[in-house]
Each structure stands twice: as structure tokens, then as C-alpha cells.
Amino acid sequence: MQPILLTPRDLAVSSSLLMLDGVLSLALGLALHRQLLVAAFRMVVQLLIVGFVLRAAFALASPALTLALVLAMVAIAAREVAVRPEQRLVRMGNYRIAGIAVAFATGLTAILALTTAVRPHPWYDPRYAIPLAGIITGNVLNAASLALDSLLGGVVRERAAIEAQLALGATIRQALARLVRQSIRRALLPMINTMSAAGIVTLPGIMTGQILAGLDPVEAVKYQILLMFLLAGGSGIGAAAAAFLAARRLTDSRQRLRLDRLARR
Amino acid sequence: MRGLRIVGLRSELAGPFDLAIERGAVAISGASGSGKSLFLRMLADLDPNEGEVWLDGERRSEMPAPAWRRLVAYSAAESGWWSESVADHFPGKALDAARALAPRLALASHLLDGPVTRLSSGEKLRLALIRVLLLEPRVMLLDEPTGAVDQATALLVEQVLRQRMEIGTILVLATHDPAQPARLGARHLRMVAGRLEGACSQSC
């Protein structure tokens, strides 16, 4: 089955729904029409750019360009992870931890999927590598930023409790264990919610897209299941990496709690 | 040399400190913010510091930090709690031992079965002291161990501390009570702007 291709006219017609939102905003005094317009404009421009960049990347099929695009996505996600917490590690610590966590989790999960499950030829075919890396990066971003935020916030809040354990001869690993566990747990809850609700509360976007594009629903579901596993794996790796790296950065060779390495934003 | 020997212990905020404590107690008084807590934290190696400390001839720097802190245990003025229930802070046999010690510090033993949130600050301080006592450390670093309790209870706490000193435990404490050093038979030193006054140098 061939997908039904959209013409610019189709899009123009559907944009009239946006006008409806604008009218609503004016009528109810929501003062949102300007923001709506800007957001919609941004969305159209950003997506068109992505579309053309991807078309070019697929046509070129250059491993270097594919890698560069994936790295750009990872860098943007890592920046988001780094700036989210209220607490900052000195000397760009947040950026370093976020960069390692996102790159490691995305790289590992994407390469695993491309070499064992999807198996395009070659395995780094941009048509598969870029979208896969993109959706994994998005989920890793969520998990890693939750983990980093709750760990950095937690050490400040629970300083007395952590140091009381150290003062009685606990190792820093023991003293931080509870907090590291809590941080990773919190980071993984959204993924568990998504998986539990998948198909019942929500029709996942990827699956919907594939069905609209003409794929058999069961085939689309299989892709979605694979993706969910990838995203769950990526989230776990990203969250654990962020929490462990941050915990390591907050201690030293004498197993002290080094809150002097934190600077409030 | 037996006991605690401190040479050139300093950080950006306090020191240098030179002090030798062979046995017994040293009580440090001084204004809030003068550096009493910083000194105790440095001794416990909880804050970055330079210099060297020996315990019974063993260098601190040659000992893993957790092993040092078990021997030289510190109790902060603001006690820390890492679980909701009090009993979780006394794992295994420690709970029975804590129950046995509690009455001697005027603590009802049922406090050990409740949540931490129900403790007063004075009760927390004494239960935190019990945690240190149960470790049976060689040196106890106590930051205002009688800070939030009445005079009668303070005397009970001091009695327990004196018994520990009798079996050879060294005590270093920060205090705001001017009569406490004498009651404990402690050497009394004053902390002024990050320096110990009345402390003798290595020569003594």
C-alpha cells in the first residue's frame, strides 16, 4: 500500500484549525495568539529544515555526515540535561556528565538495535540510524536530566544525613547509595508509565505514523515494541550513568562529600 | 606516641593547628563561627585539609578514610538521619545495645521504635551520641554534645563521657558551657578566629 502523499494545499487547509485557536484566544482574552503564531511558525520551519537535511543525508549516505548529525543531536540533548538542575557542578561538571551519559546511552542502544534487530545494509544506513538515534536521544534526555536533577538536589538536601554516615565510618558509596537509587528510580518512572499506557491510553506516535504511512498495523506494533525496549534500555543507562558520574564527582580520594564543588545557579 | 598528635592541620578557613592529646579530654570553647566545628570536621577528615594527624603512632594519610573515621568518630551539632525510622540507624545488634544505653542518657527506649520526625532536637543529639558510643571509637569528636539539653541531662551525658574516658577513649569536644571543661576534667582551649589559644605546640 502506498502512503497518501500530502500537498502544500492540504497543509494550508489544516492550518485553518490554527486560525481557530487564534480566534479562540482573541475571543476569550487568552493573550495566546501571538505565541501560537510564533510556535506554529517555528514548528513549520524547523520541521522543513529537518526534512530537507534528512533527505540530503539519506541521498548522500555518508557515514561522516550521519555521525555528525547524530553527534549534533546528542550535544543538544546533553546541553538540556546539563542546564535543567538547579545545582551546578563547578568547572562545567554538569556538561561533562550529561555529555558522557547521553552519548554513552544513545550510542550503546542505537548500535545494538542497528546491528542486531533492525539490521539495515550497511548498519549505519542514515535512513535508520538517524531517526533511531533521535528518538533514543529524546528519551535519554528525559531520564538523565531527572536523575541528575534529583541527585544534585538530594545531596544538598540530605547533606547532614550523608555526612553523619561518613562520620561513623561508612564508605561514600554506602552513604550515597540511597540517594543514587532514588534518583535512578525517579528517572525511570516516566518510561514505566509510557510502557504501561502504550496502546491503551495512548497510541504511540511512531506507530501511528507508520500506520498512516501505509504499514500493516501488526508490523507497526512490532516496530513500536522494539522501540519501547530500546527507549527503556537507553533511559536506564542514561539515568544510571548520570547518577553515578555525579556521585563520583561529589567525592574525592578521602571519601568526603564535596559540596564545595556545587554552585547554585 | 600514644594518643592523638596533630601537626600543621589547616584549611583555607582555619588553622594551622598543632596539638597533642595523649589521653583524657580537650574542650574547645569560642564564639560561634570561630572555627570549632571546622577543626572537628578536619580531624574527622570530612573537609579538605592539609597537615598530618597520628593516632597511636599511625598516620591518618596511610589509613583509608572510612577506617580513620571509625577510630576517630565525629558527631555534628546538627545530627543527621538517613532513614525514617529511628531503629534503622541501629542495625542488627546495635539496636539492643542502644536500648540498654538509652536510659542512662534519660531517653525512653520506646523512642527507638518511632520515627525520627517525632524526636526533639535534644533527643536527636543524644541518640546520635549513642551511635558514636556504640562504635567504641578510640577518639570521640563531639560538637556541642549537650547543646540542646537541660542541665540535669547534661550531667548525665557527662557521666557517660567520663566513663568512656576512664577506659582510655580520647574526647575532643566543642562547648558553649563554661563549666563543662572543668566538670569533665578536660584541658580547656579557646578558638579565636580559626586559631587555638592555649594550645601547646609540638614541643610539649
Order of helices and strands of chain B: EEEHEEHEHHEHEHEE
Number of helices of chain A: 10
Please count the beta strands of chain B (DSSP E, at least 2 residues each).
10
Structural class per helix/strand content of chain A?
mainly alpha
Helix content of chain A: over 70%
Give the second-level CATH assignment, the architecture of the domain at 4-82 and 137-197 in chain B: 3-Layer(aba) Sandwich
Q: Ranges of chain B with pLDDT <50 over ≥5 residues? A: 200-204
Helical element count of chain B? 6
Q: Which sequence of strands runs across the widest sheet of chain B? A: 6-7-8-3-9-10
How many strands in all of chain A?
2
- Output the strand order for the largest sheet of chain A: 1-2
Please bin the fraction of helical residues of chain B. Answer: 25-40%
What is the mean predicted local confidence, pLDDT of chain A?
93
Q: Termini of chain A, distance in Å?
A: 54 Å
- Name the assembly state: heterodimer
Approximately how much beta-strand content do the residues of chain A carry? under 5%
Main sheet summary of chain B:
6 strands, mixed
